[in-house]
């Protein structure tokens, strides 16, 4: 199936939803401290989305998901359910935010560090963000999805990390998950051709150990099979004639200043 092309009116709604999602991540950052629980982070984000932004937290009740955000700590790859376990010094956590505003979705996530991270965790987080940025830089009218997946996979594997293959990015708009599937591995010159007006997420999940994952009994939480650390970053992207627009860009994003370490 071909990804839908957004109208100018739809694109404007996507910009608004994307900006709101980014603002939630900026808002929650000072709260990510040792001693706070992920359920408390969920409550803070939920109240901000509903009361301040007058928007809807998309994950809540989505196919039965019980919370308003996803909180994936340490070896959790994605879809971690907020709970009453307190964060501790050295933890790394991905917070994944999706808001619905005026019927359209903005979807984004980033890694946070609690206290002082290990050198290994810090490196994993940096390489994962760089991989996402490299994928984003491949987005333009006429590019192919395999071009994006290839550069992401190449960067992760060059640093002896593994790309999770069971979960991927996706088209997005009035529907949370629409066509196409955006794999974070692949071959250049393969896959669907991108066209101006498409919206999609790029959200590589990178493991410090092996690539294999395991779904826990709660039906949502995905962990690394070997219990190694995992990291993820995500942005919602609009394909344009000359490149792309990051609809969920934050003030701390460094894509324009990125230097890829060899």
Description:
With 262 residues, this protein is of the alpha+beta class. 26% of the residues lie in helices and 24% in strands. It contains 4 helices and 15 strands. It has helices at residues 8-28, 38-52, 119-137, 145-158, and strands at residues 56-57, 70-73, 76-78, 92-101, 104-113, 162-163, 169-171, 178-182, 199-202, 205-207, 213-215, 222-224, 230-232, 235-239, 244-246. A hairpin with a 4-residue loop joins strand 14 (235-239) and strand 15. Helix 1 (8-28) packs across helix 2 (38-52). It is globular and about 45 Å long. The model has no long low-confidence stretch (mean pLDDT 95). This is Methionine aminopeptidase. Substrate binds at residues 79, 177.
List the helices and strands and how they pair.
Elements: H1 8-28, H2 38-52, E1 56-57, E2 70-73, E3 76-78, E4 92-101, E5 104-113, H3 119-137, H4 145-158, E6 162-163, E7 169-171, E8 178-182, E9 199-202, E10 205-207, E11 213-215, E12 222-224, E13 230-232, E14 235-239, E15 244-246
Antiparallel strand pairs: 1-4, 2-4, 3-12, 4-5, 6-10, 7-8, 9-14, 10-13, 11-12, 14-15
Structure, briefly:
Keywords: Aminopeptidase, Hydrolase, Metal-binding, Protease. This protein is of the alpha+beta class and 262 residues long. It has four helices and 15 strands.
